[in-house]
User: What shape does this take?
Amino acid sequence: MKRIVVIEDNPDNRLLLRAILEDRFIIEEYETGTDGLAGVERDGADLVLCDVSLPGIDGVEVVRRLKTNPATGRIPVVALTAHAMDGDRDRFLAAGFDDYLTKPIVDEQLLFDVIDRLAGGGGG
Assistant: This one.
């Protein structure tokens, strides 16, 4: 089963993602960018769903550190953000994210499609 790391400071958003994903994936959750980065570096992941606005180091810094680390640089990282203005998607992709999803997640199939494309499906 594929392992997805969720780095998200909002407990309601973590709960929603767990409810959507836990039947198909192993889910590991972190509340801060620092903890999430350490967890991915320690345990790896098949995909990371990362909030952009995090306490401490933000999602842009998390993705920068993951992508420049040879041990984690190939792990797909998807930006999860409430930022949905013109240009935000391009800005986050340019920062190193592999894809971009807006919160709240209202289209589960879109989430599954991104995971399938970047991490090769649910396994299981």
